[in-house]
């Protein structure tokens, strides 16, 4: 079997609050293969956001190992993690995180600036991914001229632009009405069908149902890991 895209071994994450140590993740073992569609679920305080931050290289574990695409990222410095994030991970957040006074096209092209692409390469690739998310006619619009669903499509296009190993989506429909949520999840299904690895953090069962594998956390451990 090929090496897993993500291999986490005995990951622990503690936080110090005053004189107290809070044990958030208590020894997580997890493998995710290329091309999987995984939902991370769990109640508030289960550790799912902490685990997502570790998977997304936004944080490092207190102990344990994290191998991402063959690289040990668990011991990396902040600048090395920033580079890995930009190359390997496409983020989609509940709040879209778009630059307000910038067109959809320039918002999408932004990660490519850090990756060192030329202006013409950035524009061409950004146009391609905006077409992919059905926003070809909204490229010159700023976020305040777009609906919530359109903003999330811009955010998804931005996540795809550097051809990352993983699309990591944190409650991607949390700010959307139910009809728009259905459209956005259909888009994630398409993105997965094109061979992308998708990891979705959600507390909503109907959103998690789109994934092919559901991992449930409780009290800092994996309670269940179900492949559908």
Automatic annotation (TrEMBL):
GO terms for cellular component: membrane protein complex; plasma membrane. The keyword Nucleotide-binding applies. Residues 6-227 form the ABC transporter domain. This is ABC transporter ATP-binding protein. Keywords: ATP-binding, Nucleotide-binding, Transport. SMART domains: AAA (SM00382). The keyword Nucleotide-binding applies. GO terms for molecular function: ATP binding; ATP hydrolysis activity; transmembrane transporter activity.
């Amino acid at each position: 079997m090929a090496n897993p895209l993500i291999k986490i071994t005995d990951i622990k994450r503690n936080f110090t609050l005053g004189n107290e140590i809070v044990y958030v993740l208590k020894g997580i073992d997890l493998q995710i293969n290329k091309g999987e569609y995984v939902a991370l679920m769990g109640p508030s305080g289960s550790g799912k956001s902490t685990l997502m931050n570790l998977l997304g290289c936004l944080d490092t574990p207190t102990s344990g190992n994290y191998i991402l695409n063959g690289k040990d990222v668990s011991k990396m410095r902040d600048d090395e993690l920033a580079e890995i994030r930009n190359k390997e991970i496409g983020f989609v957040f509940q709040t879209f995180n778009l630059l307000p006074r910038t067109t959809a096209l320039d918002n999408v092209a932004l990660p490519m600036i850090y990756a060192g692409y030329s202006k013409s390469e950035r524009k061409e690739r950004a146009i391609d991914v905006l077409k992919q998310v059905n926003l070809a006619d909204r490229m010159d619009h700023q976020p305040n001229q777009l609906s919530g669903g359109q903003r999330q499509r811009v955010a998804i296009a931005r996540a795809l632009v550097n051809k990352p190993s993983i699309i990591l989506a944190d409650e991607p429909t949390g700010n959307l009405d139910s009809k728009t949520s259905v459209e956005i999840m259909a888009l994630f299904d398409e993105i997965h069908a094109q061979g992308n690895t998708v990891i979705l953090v959600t507390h909503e069962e109907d959103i998690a149902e789109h994934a092919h594998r559901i991992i449930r956390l409780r009290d800092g451990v994996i309670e269940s890991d179900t492949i559908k």
